[in-house]
Write a structure and sequence with these properties.
Helix content: 25-40%
Largest sheet: 5 strands, parallel
CATH superfamily of the largest domain: SPOUT methyltransferase, trefoil knot domain
Shape: elongated
CATH class of the largest domain: Alpha Beta
Number of helices: 7
Order of helices and strands: EHEHEHEEHEHEHEEH
Strand content: 15-25%
Distance between the termini: 49 Å
Number of domains: 2
CATH topology of the largest domain: Alpha/beta knot
CATH architecture of the largest domain: 3-Layer(aba) Sandwich
Structural class: alpha/beta
Radius of gyration: 19 Å
Number of strands: 9
Length: 232
């Protein structure tokens, strides 16, 4: 029987049909089992799942949903083993330094995929990418991208030597005028504290905005930057 999620566990789970389909379609080698609520066994989603996985790995039970405190409309929990990745050194990367919010992390994964990129570096300490909240916020994107963890930003840049662009507020270099040297890395800091000065460089970039707001939300900033990178 599934237990409430723990960061120390070697597995996590998807909640709901769509992310569960994404997990099975793109990371089936890590699939362990499915828990399906009794009121979902006649649904179209359930019938599709029975064609994708071994029926012996499908467990009809309502109890797991109360254990993990799943949302009322989830109907299905897809259990999978946690996995690791290495980034593609020939593509552009998104680097998130010490992100603390799991919803932001999941949304960043979704934005990354939306603009055609597949590589995310996370600098620790950071939010747990396998927490079901992050998995849910990614809407299945976590199963289509490569994510690699690093103890420090220096560790990342030693492994992937390339131009990188720190996104900060205190620079006169506007995003709209940047000519990215690809492959490159877009670097974003923590939601509250931003990027430490040790990561700043001559490529510092600022997203232009009005004076009527203090700053943009982290995931909004990431989406804007990825869009500009794609155009560029």
């Amino acid at each position: 029987m599934i237990k409430a999620y723990s960061k120390d566990a070697d597995y996590s789970y998807t909640e709901g049909f769509f992310p569960t389909f994404e997990m099975i379609n793109f990371k089936k080698e890590y699939f362990k089992c499915l828990y399906v609520a009794s009121d979902a066994i006649n649904s179209e989603g359930y019938l599709k799942l029975t064609k994708l996985v071994d029926p012996k790995k499908i467990i009809i039970s309502d109890k797991p949903f109360s254990i993990v405190k799943s949302k009322d409309n989830s109907h299905v929990l897809g259990v999978f083993e946690k996995f690791t990745s290495k980034l593609d050194e020939n593509t552009c990367h998104l680097v998130m330094v010490n992100p603390s919010d799991m919803g932001n992390l999941g949304n960043a994964m979704r934005s990354l995929l939306a603009f055609g990129y597949h590589d995310l570096a996370l600098i620790e300490p950071c939010a747990d990418m396998f927490n079901p909240k992050a998995v849910r916020a990614s809407m299945g994107a976590i199963f289509k991208i490569r994510v690699q963890l690093f103890k420090t930003f220096d560790d990342y840049i030693k492994e992937y030597k390339r131009p990188y662009y720190p996104f900060v507020l205190d620079t006169s270099n506007p995003l709209g005028k940047v000519k990215f040297k690809k492959p490159c890395s877009l670097v974003f800091g923590n939601e509250a504290t931003g990027l430490p000065s040790s990561i700043h460089n001559e490529n510092n970039v600022r997203i232009e905005q009005s004076d009527e707001v203090d700053s943009l939300n982290l995931t909004t900033s990431i989406a804007v930057a990825l869009y500009e990178l794609k155009k560029n």
